[in-house]
Amino acid sequence: MTQTGRGGRPTVAPAGAHRLVGRVSEIEVLERLVADVAAGRGGVVLAVGEQGAGKTALLTQGLRETAAGAGCRVAWGSGDELDEQFPLRLMVKCLEGDGIQVPPGPVAGPGGGATGVERVLTLVERWCSAGPVVVVAEDLQWADEASLLAWGRLTQRAARLPLLVAGSCRPGSKRADRLSRFVTVRGGLVMELGPLPDSEVAVLASRWLGGHPGERLSAVLAQAGGNPAYVRELVDALMHTGRIAVTGRVAELAGDAAQVPVPASLRAVVAERLASLDTTAADVLRWAAVLGAEFVPADLQVVSGLDASESASALQAAVTAGVLVDSAPWMRFRPGLIRQVLYDALPQAVTAALHGQAARALAESGAPAERVAAQLVAAPDETGDWAASWLAHVAPVLAFRAPAVAAQLLRRVLAAMPPADSHREVLEAALVTAAFLLTEQEEVERVARPLLASTTDPDRAAETAWLLAYTLSRTGRGEEAAVVAEQSLARPGTAVVRAADYYFEVGSWDDALAVLAAAQAHAGHDLPVHAQAALIALHRDDRETLAHHLAAVRDQVFGGHFRYYQLWLQALDAEREGRPEEVVAVLTPCLDPADDMPCRCQLLPMLARAALAAGDGPAAAAAAVVAAHEADREPLPVDVAAARWCRGLAGGDPGLVLEAAACYESAGRPVGRALALEDAAVLLAGVGRRAEAWQAFSTAAGLYLELGAAWDLRRADVRLHLFGIRRGRRARPRSGWEALTPTEATVARLVAEGRSNPDIAAELFLSRNTVQTHVSHILAKLGARSRAEVIRQAFQQQGGE
């Protein structure tokens, strides 16, 4: 730890002090500069970083301690707010500190000025004639003009003297920019000390805590924005209040993470940063705090009521003050503690009102549903007509994009809504969807059953019945699920084709064929009946049945929704015959944004795979772009999975394709999961990751066998045989990395990236409980006791590939 001595100068850290965390490469550069000056070669270096970034500690370890061992004379001084009023004040601190003997007569004569600057230069040159010299001027943002002039003149002389001139300053000001340009022109180095990454913050905190920070404590420390001093203040405050418990080698937060106060010392630092802002900028920042740690500038303009120029000017002032960071198209508080301080300063009644006002303004401006919802959920009194009307309009999409927020809003609005309200049915249907995605089984059943009994909308009834049946099935109540499905099919107006679609996607192909056979008696069903039956026959390699259904629709025109089946059949037939160029030609209409084709996301992975087989990289990349657009437009789990699948194929990234397979698994889609696993196996084998390739291939093959998909199984065998990988040659090990299933391997990879269980659940559309189960299995198979050991083994696994 660095200590502070006379004039704000750092003293040498005590013996055995730790090396500075996260600045290893910077320290090595400074040590080389000291070695150069000891050999007679001068240099210039400027460290730029926000308050608390570790500039003093860096210069102390990299220069002072190294220079002392190299026999250099060290002159060190640190500026403060008072220095600007006194000519050469900072240079006097540098040259008269640490016991350095200065010739009689102060370097700064009456009034300072040019004479004093010349005395500084003469003195330093005299020292250089006797040996190497290191001059360090910290906090140059507060230096007087004469000291800046002297420091600048010294950097000019450094090229011909054994002189290393160093300085530090805070960013975000004209002076900082001027100093950086000056050093660069002199051929010097500008070191920008950015925030420490989370991994380094954990190492830093563990030195004070006596254990590695756990998941909840790490989330709190993340609010410090990677600022080492802020991390220390937070740790000190938490330890002082008994909020940290160390078990084994893990330090975890005790109690509710939401109740962690900002230490008074940090509040004072934040107040200092904000003091330089005018009233308009301060008001804008309060609105920004209401919007969240990150916000879109256009939203801030909407809620604050400022015009574009006023808003832009206020934001620029905040960026200059180091309060906001521009991460286009977003802006964010850095560190996040600044936002918390601003937000906590507002009374709760005021914040609720501001959130409600922001929600209305954003809704009226047409802002994305999730951004309006984020404000609305923080305004508990907003349950009236406008909230119900807005929620009814966006609920179907919001339930998929943000199911937890949607569920909270839907419950609140429904509780205050009259039974006969026209919006009630739409909101109840959306709540069923959100609860299903959150695996809130009891709520799905509680809301879905009365909704099924009352609704007269056949599509809504079919969707609700499917969600209820699937929920009953995954909770072990298969017979009840079958009854719900049968009752749904018996309802007048139920879309039989949709029911068959459902059975096909969930792998119940015999049930799909039974529904299709019953539907043939109804007029107008011939085309989709034969098309869907042909698809199943093709996958099962039933050539006779396939020929029968294809003959029945050969001369018919596929239009609207059914055109999707036509393209699918043609593409699969071409793929089966080994003609990837024809597959690309058939599916190219899927890339046309003007073509409002339904279900195109299900065809795009096939297009990407065929394009790669045909050597058409641009077509594969185009498929990935279109899939991403479709997923952004309506982020259903299967669309998100297709987007990751296409991006993984186009970029040769098996991890993304495995993520897609996990998404299909969570959505109960074994067909999509098997196909994605097959492609992931090919990509893994292609980069030499044979063990993982075999795992993915083995799982895909097992799914194909369960489906009876003989043609898919044969195709997968051929593709993997090219890499020397065959089915059934060995059983999966019971322990070690190779024992992980493909989904477990995907979860383990995300754990290794530092993702929390909630983050992984959101990423893969799994419930948190499911993710926790996967993590428990991973720990058991790897013989690991903590997530940190999973991370270590993941790194070892990557290094061994």
By secondary-structure content and strand pairing, the structural class works out as alpha/beta
Termini gap? 39 Å
Choose one word for the global shape. globular
Low-pLDDT stretches: 1-17, 98-112, 521-525
- The helix tally amounts to 39
Work out the radius of gyration: 33 Å
Query: Helix amount, in percent?
Result: 55-70%
Largest sheet: 5 strands, parallel
Mean pLDDT: 82
Strand content: 5-15%
Strand order of the largest sheet: 4-5-6-3-7
Can you count the beta strands? 13
Could you give the topology of this structure?
Layout: E1 3-4, E2 10-11, H1 24-38, E3 43-48, H2 55-69, E4 73-78, H3 89-96, H4 114-130, E5 133-138, H5 145-157, E6 163-169, H6 174-185, E7 189-192, H7 198-209, E8 212-213, H8 215-221, H9 228-240, E9 244-247, E10 250-253, H10 264-274, H11 279-291, E11 294-295, H12 297-304, H13 308-320, E12 324-327, E13 330-333, H14 336-344, H15 348-365, H16 369-376, H17 385-401, H18 403-415, H19 424-437, H20 441-454, H21 458-474, H22 478-490, H23 496-505, H24 509-519, H25 526-539, H26 543-553, H27 563-576, H28 580-587, H29 604-613, H30 617-633, H31 637-651, H32 654-666, H33 670-686, H34 690-707, H35 710-721, H36 742-752, H37 757-764, H38 768-782, H39 787-799
Parallel strand pairs: 3-6, 3-7, 4-5, 5-6, 8-10
Antiparallel strand pairs: 1-2, 9-10, 11-13, 12-13
Summarize the model shown.
This protein is α/β, with parallel strands linked by helices and 801 residues long.
